[in-house]
Write a structure and sequence with these properties.
The complex is a heterodimer. Chain A is of the alpha/beta class. Chain A contains 18 helices and 12 strands. In chain A, the strands form 3 sheets. In chain A, strands 1, 2, 3, 6, 10, 11 and 12 form a 7-stranded mixed beta sheet that branches. A 3-stranded antiparallel beta sheet of chain A has the order 8-7-9. In chain A, strand 1 (33-40), helix 2 and strand 2 (67-74) form a beta-alpha-beta unit. In chain A, helix 17 packs antiparallel against helix 18. The longest helix of chain A has 25 residues, at 2-26. Chain A starts with a helix and ends with a helix. In chain A, 42% of the residues are buried. In chain B, helix 3 (59-90) runs parallel beside helix 7. The chains are: A alpha/beta, B mainly alpha. The interface between A and B is large, with 37 and 34 residues.
Chain lengths: 426, 292
Amino acid sequence: MKRLISQICTIALVAGVLFICLSCKRAEAGNKVVIRISNWGGVQDDNEYERTIKALYDQFEKENPDTDVVVERVAGEYVPKMLLSFVAGAEPDIMTLDASSAAVFMNNGVLKDLSPLMEAEKDFNLDDYFPNVVDIARRGDKLFAVPIDFTPMVLYYNKKMFRDAGVPYPKPGWTWDEFRATAKSLTRGEDQYGFVFANWMPGWIMWLWNNGGDVLSPDGTRASGYLDSPQNAEAVSFLRDIINVDKSAPTLSQAESMGVDLFAQGNAAMTIVGHWAIVGYKAPGSKIRVEDLGVVELPRKVHDQSVTVIYEAGLAMSKNCKHPEEAWRLIKFLTSYRYQKAYNSTGIAICARKDIAEEHAQGELEESFLRIVPSGRVPWGAKVEGYDYVETMGVQLMDSVLKQGRDPQQALTMAAKKIDKDFARK
Amino acid sequence: MKRSRIGYLFVAPAFVHLLVFALIPILYALYLSFFKWHILKEEKPFVGMQNYVDAVTDPPFWNAMWNSLRYTLVSVPVGLLVALLVAILVNQKMRGMTIFRTIYYIPSICSGVAIAMMWIYIYLPTNGLISGTLNAIGIKNEINLLNNVATAMWALVFMSIWTGLGPRMVLFLAGLVGIPQSLYEAAQLDGANKLREFWSITLPMLAPTTMFVVITSTISAMQIFTPVYMMTKGGPEGSTDVIGYHIYTDAWQKFHIGLASSKSFLLLIAILAVSVFQYRLMKRQMEGYSAG
């Protein structure tokens, strides 16, 4: 009996080892070139859209019989996992690059400069893309990614609430004072707020910019003298007063406790978010009608034109890619008109190709987005490594002002010191 | 001789797993802790003990150590006590007791992330289970347990007592079952009451189990990560920034891999010291009962 058990165990062990070896081999099977492309987001549902995308990949493989495409979806913690794949020498040939965390990849020479490949190509023209979106992946004359899609942060408003309150719709070029007055006149106690503020730094950094302030020095090496500027203290005080003095926006606790998007629920008249929110506002559970949805640029303060931030996704090729020719062919395919046309049909973001973006911009809502695009700035995360930490500090400082009642100037100074101390370690 | 060779073969998979996924990475981390090791940069200069110096002179590091310590100091003894009481409770000979045992064990087989999500809803202000119930019975409140410097840590401790109940209860249950009935019979002949039996027989006989539970619970409490990552991200104002999460942010938000590695080794030393101290202390306590 004992012998039998030990034999079974031995066989199982050997089988296990063999299985592992065989499965490793499988990836390299055949004479085909395997191009691995990684993206964040994990496993997708089986729906009409995913099937369309899958069919397009199949189409590419059919047109390029020597190439196999393997799509690797990475669930959670995309940046650490990608960094480790580079360390291990197991990086994908093509990686999707998120602008807000792209710096660490672009600054450290692990990506291929795509500009020579683009120049050698007759049917590839960067003029087809929004220039400030392309600039996100630019370092001098090098370009590390081709943008796929993007969104500027914009202000959404609920037209019905404006009509009911007899308040005119906000117009491009409106000011902070007008914004504050509008938010006030749209507030009805705790049932309806004029504005809803989320303490998420990528969603509020533009307030600092519009007041002439910034987070870091232009070279991105220090926060003191920038984050703690009087302009920023003024901007933070402005937001605090809208919430705590005017009560035109719910406190952070109130907003959190409701656990829902107050704008989508029809409890707030204005919110600041990206293009992706439209999908939720159009979804069945939303209490806002699509025809009541308005989009306008953020209010301006010290500049003639308000500025906003652009968040983008692009395709980059790893420097050590063994099959750059095939990989470039795939990038070209994935940024082509026919692929992007289908890819952008969900309306989560705006296509980085002007032709499709303009085609898609039928109607006032989408047109408003395109009008805002030129005022979009490159996010800090695309320039500065470890910017995540700055954003964590940003949330903490805003929390301490809004929840603990700390003085904005003091909170900004403390955060700037912490950031500088951390940056000094680089 | 042949038999022993087969034996080595059987432990080989576990050993290889341990070697590849634990021992080698640990030694590699030790190596990294002496370098300014940027994850992608070519130059990774040797800095000697500089990372260790930086770590011990870094106030957030001590804040995180202190947070882990106060988490451990409360969650381990309270969790232990609750588990012991529940174990005694479900050790009663009653119909349907296995159902209770199963129910109390369920939290520990659930995914840590799912549990954290559930507790976020329990602690939610105004509409959460706690705050909402109080509101429903007329006590108006906006209690925001996870977002308050004074309460966030204790909210995590409370949750961990609930999550950690299962395995500790099972260990105590096994300990309780292992106590010879003859001891209780002898005590009854001597006229001891139930309380006396508990103090003089149950508790001392459970000493080895308790030691095991204390040491393993302490080690895991010092390493707590998932609930912090899911529920508070170390906030508010760093009040739940425990050492595990602190090291994680150093490595993966700020990319200071060498510094994070040195902090990991300082944590290892701290845990080792605490464990040895606990072991010594409890061994001395147990010596009187080892004859039984």
